[in-house]
Amino acid sequence: MRVLGVDFGLRKLGIAVSDEGSTLATPHRVLRVDSVREAPAAVAAVAAEVGAESVVVGVPLGLEGEERRLEVRRVERFARALRRASGLTVHLVDESLTTREAQDAARQRGRPARDPDRHDHAAALILQRWLDRPRRTRGGAD
């Protein structure tokens, strides 16, 4: 089963894809949208293109305060819209520190920390976290 991973952003969404056995996440691309309203249909199109059977979206659970609540609500709205647009099961997984991990990985590859590739690498980290869970605990569908 192929799974799509998403690092949600208002203008840039990192996309990662698992292998057929759902064991390894690989960065796929950075999807750019003109508005957040375009994002669900754009991600649904990528999911169809790669033959994904479900989607994992990172949600910033590690943030605190009002900013956290706004970001979490924004991601939850996106996940619901993506489920409607794609017809796929959408899982939410904590994305805490994935951007920092992707920035560190970019530096190790000799690239700047603000490398645009960090979004798809963050998506791969998000997806890999979900894939590494035991199958019985992979719930979290929105």
Please describe the topology of this protein.
Layout: E1 3-7, E2 12-18, E3 25-32, H1 39-50, E4 54-59, H2 65-86, E5 89-94, H3 98-108, H4 118-132
Parallel strand pairs: 1-4, 4-5
Antiparallel strand pairs: 1-2, 2-3
Helix pairs in contact: 1-2, 3-4
β-strand percent reads 15-25%
Strand order of the largest sheet: 3-2-1-4-5
Radius of gyration: 14 Å
**What is the fold named in CATH at topology level?**
Nucleotidyltransferase, domain 5
Helix and strand composition category: alpha/beta
Q: Number of DSSP strands? A: 5
Write down the CATH class: Alpha Beta
Mean pLDDT: 85
CATH superfamily: YqgF/RNase H-like domain
What does this structure look like?
With 142 residues, this protein is α/β, with parallel strands linked by helices. The chain has one domain (3-137): 2-Layer Sandwich (Nucleotidyltransferase, domain 5). Helix content is 42%, strand content 23%. The chain is built from four helices and five strands, in the order βββαβαβαα. It has helices at residues 39-50, 65-86, 98-108, 118-132; strands at 3-7, 12-18, 25-32, 54-59, 89-94. The chain has a five-stranded mixed sheet with strand order 3-2-1-4-5, sandwiched between helices. Strand 2 and strand 3 form a beta hairpin. Helix 1 packs across helix 2 (65-86). The longest helix is centred in the middle third of the chain and has 22 residues, at 65-86. The protein is globular. The two termini are 19 Å apart. The model has no long low-confidence stretch (mean pLDDT 85).
